[in-house]
TrEMBL record:
Transmembrane region(s): 20-38
Membrane topology term: Single-pass membrane protein
Annotated compartments: Cell inner membrane
Keyword Transport attributed: yes
Alphabetical keyword list: Cell inner membrane, Cell membrane, Cytochrome c-type biogenesis, Membrane, Transmembrane, Transmembrane helix, Transport
Sequence similarity: Belongs to the CcmD/CycX/HelD family.
Name the record gives this protein: Heme exporter protein D
Protein purpose: Required for the export of heme to the periplasm for the biogenesis of c-type cytochromes.
GO cellular-component term (any): plasma membrane
Gene Ontology BP, a term: cytochrome complex assembly
Source species: Seongchinamella unica
């Protein structure tokens, strides 16, 4: 095995913080790339449902006797 202990793996002769930061940033970016389309899809579906609800509840002005005020 290349490293003798867990401390040696984390420290990596002084390069550990840079290496582990690179791994963390890489994983964070990959997770963001995977999560962003799911969030966008959820927001789009919620927006579309709201528009459909508003369209279904809107009064019809064509031939509606209540719309003319008489």
């Amino acid at each position: 095995m290349y490293f003798d202990s867990l401390q040696a793996v984390l420290y990596m002769d002084g390069h550990g913080p840079y290496v582990w930061a690179a791994y963390i940033i890489t994983v964070a970016v990959i997770l963001l790339i995977l999560w962003a389309p799911v969030g966008r899809k959820t927001r789009f579906i919620q927006q579309l449902q709201g528009e459909l609800r508003r369209a279904a509840g809107a009064p019809n002005n064509k031939g509606d006797s209540n719309a003319s005020g008489s």
